[in-house]
Amino acid sequence: MVKKESLKILFGLSLIIAVDVIIHIILHFIPFIWQIFHADLVNISVQVFMLISGLVIFYFLINKDVLQLGYYRKDRLPVAKYVIFFSLASLVGLIFSYTFVYLFDNDTFVSVASGRLLNFGGFIKKALMTGVLPGIAEETLYRGTLISLFLFGVWNKNEQVTKKKMLIIILVSASIFSLAHVNILFDSFRITYDIYQLVTAFIMGSIEAYVFIKTRNLWGSILIHNIWNIMVLIVVQLIILFS
Q1: H or E element, residue 185
Q2: What pLDDT is attached to residue 146?
Q3: Which pLDDT does position 32 carry in this prediction?
Q4: Which end of the chain is more exposed for a tag (fewer CB within 10 A), N or C?
């Protein structure tokens, strides 16, 4: 029984990783989609694909009631204190990070400061694009489905998650989420990445995984994810405006 569960976990993790690889393959080998469709539509399609993938993997490998993924578990706990605490902590961390970049990495700061300043309409559009669907889609796949592979049975038996097991699951979830932010180039098979983005994805992924494990409520992770994205957008726009 243990071996069967382990194989299911490994298979599920492989499928989750495959989702990101498939996205990279499609965007690389079918470049004309960028010419046919608006970039925003392509990005939305990618997020929808991730959302559907997470739901399908959960449905077939874990439980046919997708609400049990974390959207509406009966044993869910309130998330307000986690959302408030980690959002404030993330804001402090964000300000510290850009201060560090300003002091010690001038090239990166100049690159950020030379970005495009959005008008009001553009800002609202960007906020909606980065502050709604990404959190729902990515948290469904990398937190809801991934963590449920490990804990769905444990939660249904109302068993406690040991600190060691929690740490392992958080590291797995955050690592896969971080790796999903690398860019795969297939022509000469190169992998490029932004070290700041990878570190940020790992830290935020760890926080979101922790909140989901503690509350069994995916909406806390979704809110923290989207609040972070919006805070990044605001801070970057302020840097551009005052530079």
Answers
A1: strand 183-185
A2: 98
A3: 63
A4: N
Of 217, 209, 236, nearest to 97 by C-alpha is 236
Work out the number of other CB atoms within 10 angstroms of the CB of residue 176.
18
Q: Give CA–CA dist 5/12, Å, rounded.
A: 10
Chunk the chain into consecutive blocks of 10 residues (it has 243) and report each block's average pLDDT, rounded to whole numbers. 84 96 79 67 88 97 95 95 96 95 95 94 90 93 98 92 96 96 74 89 97 98 97 96 91
CA dist., res. 230 & res. 109, Å (int): 19
Tokens of 167: 């740490």
Nearest-angstrom CA–CA distance, 23 and 96: 33
C-alpha distances (whole Å) from 96 to each of 88, 100, 122, 162, 193 are 12, 6, 27, 32, 22
- Sequence-separated (6 or more) residues with CB below 8 Å from residue 222: 135, 136, 139
162-169: list long-range contacts, CB under 8 Å, 24+ apart: 166/210, 166/213, 169/209, 169/213
Give alpha helix (H) positions in the chain: 2-29, 32-36, 39-61, 80-104, 106-113, 120-131, 133-139, 146-156, 163-179, 195-215, 218-242
